[in-house]
Every structure is written in structure tokens, then in C-alpha cells.
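Before the break, one more example. Copy the sequence into your notebook; we will annotate it together after we see the structure.
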Amino acid sequence: MINLEINGKPYEVDASPEEPLLWVIRERLRLTGTKFSCGIGVCGSCTVHINGKAERSCQTPVGSVQGKKITTIEGLPENHPIKQAWIKEDVPQCGYCQPGQIMQAAALLHDDPHPSEAKIVEHMNGNLCRCGTYPKIKSAIRLASRGGKK
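Here is what the structure looks like once it is written out:
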């Protein structure tokens, strides 16, 4: 049995320590906001926070996160500045990559509340969007960094 803390709640799961955290989150715990896309850690759709840092859950063995705080998109409060900015900037198109994009952006703003344009691009570079909403994503991050003021 593996003990996890996800979104502030304790869970006990019967899983192999090598099983990807993504599958435990989605299939065993039914927290389906975290998405599967590439499965090799390059697209960012599966991004969650582990002890406050953005990590790819498809490449994270569940056994390696026992005793750590895991936050999924469901655990990020609805009034979080990045979620509010996402809505104001009308970022999503298809929406599939958005949970990972939001989690990556939230980690950036946690570490650097007022990132430069270059820092935004560098930090978000590993999160892919097939719809090409990158300008809106950057705009939403800038808006959130200004406290929601245009």
C-alpha cells in the first residue's frame, strides 16, 4: 500500500511503486483533471505540483511521492489568480492542455510573482498546445502577475 496526500486529502492505494503517478491519480482516484497526452514527459499535459514544484506525473513513479504534498488541477482553488486570469483572457480553445498549462503557470508565479517576458517563455516552454494559444497563455500569466489588473 502506498500512502499519498493529494489536494490536502490522504489516500491509500494498492499500486506498484513504479506505477506512474498519473495513472494512480486518474484511474485509481478518479481525479481526471490531470491529462494524459504524450506519456514521455515532453508535453506537460500531466503537470501536477509535488511539494510546490511543477512535475510531469506521467514520468513520476508513485512510490517516489510518498510523504510529499501533491496538488492537481482540482486542488488549485477556483479563486487562484492564474485560474481567474485564464478566464478573463479566454485562454482555452480545445482545453485539453489547459490543466497542465495552468499548473505550470501557477508554479512559476509561486516562485516568481512578477516574472519577465523571457522568464514566462522559458518556464512555459515545455508545455505544448496544439491550438497555439501561447499568446493568450502569456497574457494570462502577465495579468495574474499584476493581480488581475490590465
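The longest strand covers residues 2-6. Residues 2-73 form a domain with the Ubiquitin-like (UB roll) fold (CATH 3.10.20.30). Try to locate both features in your own notes.
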